[in-house]
From TrEMBL:
SUPFAM superfamilies: lambda repressor-like DNA-binding domains. This is Helix-turn-helix transcriptional regulator. Gene3D superfamilies: lambda repressor-like DNA-binding domains. Signal peptide: none annotated. Residues 2-31 form the HTH cro/C1-type domain. GO terms for molecular function: DNA binding. CDD domains: HTH_XRE (cd00093). It comes from Iningainema tapete BLCC-T55.
Length: 34
């Protein structure tokens, strides 16, 4: 199973950023991830 933590590590962002994307508090950027 792919968790938020694993996905975050895979795409090179923090777990918190993935969580914000999924909860609609932020949108993914096409800029360099941090």
């Amino acid at each position: 199973m792919l968790t938020q933590e694993k996905f975050a590590a895979f795409v090179g962002v923090t777990y918190a950023r993935i969580n914000r994307w999924e909860n609609g508090r932020a949108k993914p950027s096409t800029e360099e991830p941090n």
